[in-house]
């Protein structure tokens, strides 16, 4: 993502060899910006920012418990708990999403 390549030129960490093309740099999963002389043009991207969320859609819940599990037992497993609707897991795993 473009936001992962917004790095101050002096903070860039080299990710390619001298003379690497923009295409080869990007194929390697790196960022390319040749607008600032004297700093790496092919450089490592910032790590993706992710967070764990409890999915809102009950149809995509992945079971983390068993029938009749209590909210306390579910949260002690570090899972989400919502006692509704019927017919879907009430104790379920978080999903990881990009911020």
UniProtKB/TrEMBL annotation:
The disulfide bonds in this chain are: 15-30, 25-42, 54-80, 64-79, 74-91
Q: What is its main location?
A: secreted
Listed A to Z, the keywords are: Disulfide bond, Secreted
GO term, biological process aspect, one: maintenance of gastrointestinal epithelium
Limits of the P-type domain: 1-46, 52-95
- Keyword Secreted found: yes
> Is Disulfide bond there in the keyword field?
yes
Q: Which InterPro entries match?
A: P_trefoil_chordata (IPR017994), P_trefoil_CS (IPR017957), P_trefoil_dom (IPR000519), P_trefoil_dom_sf (IPR044913)
Q: Name one GO cellular component term.
A: extracellular space
Q: Give compartment(s).
A: Secreted
Q: Which PROSITE patterns does this UniProt record tie to the protein?
A: P_TREFOIL_1, P_TREFOIL_2
From the Swiss-Prot or TrEMBL record, give the protein name.
TFF2 factor
Originating organism? Asarcornis scutulata
Q: Which gene encodes it?
A: Tff2
């Amino acid at each position: 993502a473009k936001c992962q390549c917004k790095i101050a030129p002096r903070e860039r960490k080299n990710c390619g060899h001298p003379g690497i093309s923009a295409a080869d740099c990007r194929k390697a999963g790196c960022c390319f910006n040749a607008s600032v002389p004297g700093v790496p043009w092919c450089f490592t991207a910032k790590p993706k920012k992710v967070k764990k969320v409890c999915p809102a859609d009950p149809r995509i819940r992945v079971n983390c418990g068993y029938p009749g599990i209590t909210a306390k037992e579910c949260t002690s497993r570090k899972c989400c708990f919502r006692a509704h609707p019927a017919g879907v897991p009430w104790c379920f795993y978080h999903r990881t999403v990009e911020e």
